């Protein structure tokens, strides 16, 4: 893999590199529809270059995009020779679960300012739980109330409720979790929704 580094600024926490976007690995992302949100206007806005650095980590010689998936894709579509990438070091002893937790927490924080589909947020919280984090630790890491994390984890198990949220149903997180609890009883779910 070629790293076309044209400039470098080293700081205590990371380094700014100018890398070929084709060489970047787009890491798994909690936003599942990045490609679909890549509008012609967005691609055109990147035509003259990426102004906000892409956030990445370097693992086993690969520079993995953590925040900036759409900017990377747009830069590739525009055949830009380099993009600014802020590469943050990862602990050399970090295992896959630790890397996954760090990635999800970073992406959740990043998407708070841009907006994230509800289904993607629920899936991200569920992934943190599957990576071994307790609801209390998830709440702390994501700056969310523990009761909201508990409700999110309950609702993550219900495709019916996830579909309702995605279609814009005006349900609170607690109401969604209640509806999810009745996945085994569609009539009760409908009664809850109609009431």
Describe it.
28% of the residues are buried. The protein contains 9 helices and 6 strands. 47% of the residues lie in helices and 14% in strands. The chain has a domain of 109 residues: Conserved hypothetical protein from pyrococcus furiosus pfu- 392566-001, ParB domain (Alpha-Beta Complex), CATH 3.90.1530. The chain is of the alpha/beta class. The chain starts with 7 loop residues before the first strand and ends with a helix. A hairpin with a 4-residue loop joins strand 1 and strand 2. The radius of gyration is 19 Å and the shape is globular. Helix 3 runs antiparallel to helix 4 and helix 7 packs antiparallel against helix 8. The longest helix is centred in the middle third of the chain and has 19 residues. Strands 1-2-6-4-5-3 form a 6-stranded mixed beta sheet.
Summarize the structure.
The protein is of the alpha/beta class. It has nine helices and six strands, in the order βββαββαβααααααα. 47% of the residues lie in helices and 14% in strands.
């Amino acid at each position: 893999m070629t790293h076309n580094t044209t400039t470098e600024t080293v700081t205590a926490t990371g380094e700014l590199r100018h890398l070929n976007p084709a060489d970047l690995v787009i890491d798994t992302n909690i936003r599942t529809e990045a490609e679909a949100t890549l509008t012609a206007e967005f691609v055109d806005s990147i035509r003259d270059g990426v102004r906000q650095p892409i956030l990445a980590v370097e693992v086993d010689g690969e520079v993995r995009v953590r925040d900036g998936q759409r900017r990377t894709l747009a830069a590739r579509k525009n055949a830009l020779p380099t993009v600014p990438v802020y590469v943050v070091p990862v602990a050399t002893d970090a295992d896959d679960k630790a890397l996954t937790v760090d990635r999800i927490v970073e992406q959740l924080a990043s998407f708070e300012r841009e907006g994230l589909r509800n289904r993607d947020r629920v899936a991200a919280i569920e992934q943190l739980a599957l990576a071994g984090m307790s609801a209390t630790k998830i709440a702390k890491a994501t700056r969310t109330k523990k009761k909201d994390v508990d409700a999110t984890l309950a609702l993550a198990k219900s495709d019916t409720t996830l579909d309702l949220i995605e279609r814009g149903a005006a349900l609170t997180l607690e109401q969604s979790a209640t509806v999810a609890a009745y996945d085994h009883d569609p009539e009760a779910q409908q009664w809850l929704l109609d009431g």
